[in-house]
Amino acid sequence: MAQIERRRAVSVKIGGVVVGPDAPVVVQSMTNTDTADVESSVQQIAALARAGSELVRVTVNNDAAAKAVPYIVDAPRAGRHPSSATSTTTDISC
User: Fold this and answer.
1) pLDDT, tens digit (0-9, with 9 covering 90-100), for 80-90
2) Per the CB 3.0–4.6 Å rule, which of 8, 16, 30, 66 could disulfide with 57?
3) pTM of the complete model
């Protein structure tokens, strides 16, 4: 049987978390809140972080959600080190 040749993936750093082929497995979760609802999103992200998530994804499906992301990233969360406040438009490190 012929072996399938796979493309080589690259590692990326999201906040302080490395994701990629040479990195350890990262516990990831995704919120099920309306991202535009900053308070409920922050509460759920904090709960996921306390449960062990190292990376939490949020849906950015409209302008209101996109405008909420900076407020979610800047919100104080229990157990979060201040230097880990980095995000892309959809990934927030805990």
Assistant:
1) 444 343 343 34
2) 30
3) 0.72
